[in-house]
Request: fold
Amino acid sequence: MTHVEAAESRPARPLQARVRRCVGLALILGLAAWLVWNFTSGPRQFADVALAGLSVGALYGLIALGYTLVYGIIGLINFAHGDLFMLGSVFSSILLVDWLGADSAGPRSWVLMFLVLGVVMAACAGINAASELVAYRRLRRAPKLASLITSVGLSFCFRWLGLQLNGSGQRVWPTIIPSGGISLGSVTIGYSTIVVTGVTVPLLLALTYIVQHTRQGKAMRAASQDPESALLMGINVDRAIAFTFALGGALAGAAGLLYMETLGDTNFTAGAQFGLIAFTGAVLGGVGNLLGAVIGGYVIGLIQAFNDGLPHGFGQEWSQSVVFVVLILLLVFKPEGILGKRAVENV
Reply:
């Protein structure tokens, strides 16, 4: 290509970028107009739907953190993570209801719920760390496709275990969170939303503290940036990666218990759908960014709730389609996600 031809082709990219920005701005304005239209049609309904979306979004955020933690340190999309969340919900229901008999609201049941929360988080953390030791560690220097296929295989193993424990159908469980809520004017904040938020926020703050301010968190960040240099500096990279898997598993276990208490059912196939949508939230927020994963989870929860519950939404039959259309549009206009950083490759 001559210098003249190169000069003639340069304006194409700025023009394309301007067109993309204009289309993106038009979509944002259209979304804002649609939200205003729904709000004016039913302000109380809009507030109730938004609160429900935030409650589900908190669960998506907890699961999405597991995806983004593992991706941030070894660059792996762990597709078994959704089924680990499913196991957490099954473990929670069996321990809390079948073994401990906590089938109604009361102080005893609430204390048992938090005890079971700790047990399930520890169990899922152990399973995830064992998966890293047995399966992923041996494939760390293998092509990425090998680890990806292994994660799919592990998801089927987890699903088989869920099938044995839960059965092939959906099981409905009694919940110990009261069905009412706290009324603020014309808006009622459900007790389930309060509990989910009350558990999720401390867990997210604790995770942030661990990653940013503890010795093990510093080792995790060093291993994610440059494993070879971290090893030379005396950091046990294997331990840092195993600890990362354990953290992600613990959050999946917490999400499993909150899911069971919020929706009151378990299913051995729940991890596939819920995990996929949570992974969408991680991509939406920016894979590898902890805050982005949480924001992406909340955004996905709100999108689903607005589509399903607002008077001018598309309805529940279009719920997943709307979520993935939003994801595709974001990837077209902002491929790195909401808080992700654009990767630049040097050739």
User: Anything to note?
Assistant: The first strand starts at residue 171 and ends at 172.
